[in-house]
Amino acid sequence: MPRLHNLKEVNENIDRICELVKGTKLGLPGMDLIIFPEYSTHGIMYDKEECMATAVKIPGPETDKLAKACKDNKVWGVFSITGEQHEEHPRKQPYNTLILIDDQGEIVQKYRKILPWCPIEGWYPGNSTFVTEGPKGLKISLIICDDGNYPEIWRDCTMKGAELVIRCQGYMSPCKDQQVLVAKAMAFMNNCYVAVANAAGHDGVYSYFGHSAIIGSDGRTLGECGEESDGVQYAQLSISQIRDARKHDQSQNHMFKLMHRGYTGVHASGDGDKGVAECPFDFYKTWVTDPAKAQADCEALTRSTVGVATCPVYDLPSGEAKANGVHTNGINKKRKL
User: Fold this and answer.
1) Widest CA span of the chain, in angstroms?
2) What is the pLDDT of residue 218?
3) Going along 85-158, which residue ranges are E strands?
4) Quick one: how far is CA 293 from the chain centroid?
5) In 10 A of CB 84, how many CB atoms?
6) How far is the C-alpha of 3 from the C-alpha of 45, rounded, in Å?
7) What is the rounded CA–CA span in Å between residue 74 and residue 41?
8) pLDDT score at 45
């Protein structure tokens, strides 16, 4: 995980990424797609002024370098841009963005993180997932780190047609076991390939656990890194296999079964051969029809302010009185967030 402070350092790091693209393609000449972790381009910047000063436009000189690397090496690539200038920059916070570049050097998908890692991350949230036809026709969606902790986003991508969901992460300890499990579970539950690219190393603040992985659509691991920096894993994905499975699988075809609930019993009862399509989940009905009520219902179960007085972060507002208590970390240091 790089620690960078200005655009000069960012561009020097981009040059290194381009060399990694070149070198990896040399070693794996059949490689169609290469994926880099969240924050791998800009690094994590804990200083707001540095973060705002290094935010870039897409496309721009920085992404042009990455596009040239993909075109020169005839490979597709997924790259992290932290951050992308907001349309009202610098009045509003940047976006945390991924770009998918094809082997002709064209940006074919730009995804903005929908669920930034609050309370620490100050990115402005995006509002949509996308599906793009990738190398050899494989359909690809991009998501970022904390996005993947919400099952709704995986279902949204796959129900739009995604066959490979790419999750770029800058995830740190102590969440290794949980995140390895999430990748496998979401692949299994959504009948999709999953590729995770996670950061590794220590940036002076957090320790990143690596374990980038490629998961089959049945939830079994096809390749996985350890905790080493610059680790690389690869796997062959079969487009015909996943499409055949989605068409012919039965008991584990979660996509089909979700929209044809109880079709065996419905058919046996003489009520048609499609099962039940209506959504049975009250929460989702409320969220779609009355998001303010859904938010209020959630606050009744959790809290009504974004800040927490017993563990203040930045200047996030909290209506609670401060309570006595000490929050510690493993190295017993106070840290100003």
Assistant:
1) 69
2) 96
3) 95-101, 107-112, 132-133, 139-144
4) 28
5) 25
6) 7
7) 20
8) 87
- In DSSP notation, 187-201 reads HHHHT-EEEEEE-EE
Per the CB < 8 A criterion, the answer to whether 132 and 140 are in contact is yes
AA identity, residue 21: V
Active site residues: 38, 113, 145
pLDDT at 326: 43
Length of the chain: 337
Radius of gyration of the chain measured on its C-alpha atoms: 21
Bridge partners for 33 per DSSP: 76
Distance CA(188)–CA(218), nearest Å, equals 5
What the block records as the tokens of 303 is 């809290």
Round to whole Å and give the CA distance between 259 and 279: 8
Q: Residue 319: what pLDDT?
A: 80
Measure the CA–CA gap between 159 and 155, rounded to whole angstroms.
6
Of the candidates 259, 245, 234, which has an alpha carbon nearest to the alpha carbon of residue 155?
A: 259
Kind of pairing between the strands at 213-215 and 221-224: antiparallel
- Ranges of residues in the chain whose predicted pLDDT is under 70: 320-337
- Which of these, 207, 212, 192, lies nearest to 24 by C-alpha position? 212
| pLDDT tens digits, 272-329 | 999 999 999 999 999 999 999 999 999 999 999 999 999 999 999 998 554 444 443 3
Q: What is the DSSP secondary-structure string of 74-105?
A: T-EEEEEEEEEPPTTTTTSPPEEEEEEE-TTS
Single out the residue of 238, 234, 237, 236 nearest to residue 225, CA to CA: 234
Task: Output the pLDDT for position 221.
Answer: 98
Tokens of 12: 């020097």
**In 158-220, beta strands by DSSP E:** 164-169, 193-198, 200-202, 207-209, 213-215
CA 231 to chain centroid, in Å, comes to: 19
What is d(CA 87, CA 129) in angstroms, rounded to the nearest whole number?
19
Tell how strand 213-215 and strand 207-209 pair up.
unpaired
Q: What pLDDT does 110 receive?
A: 98
N- to C-terminal Cα separation, the chain? 19
pLDDT of residue 335: 30
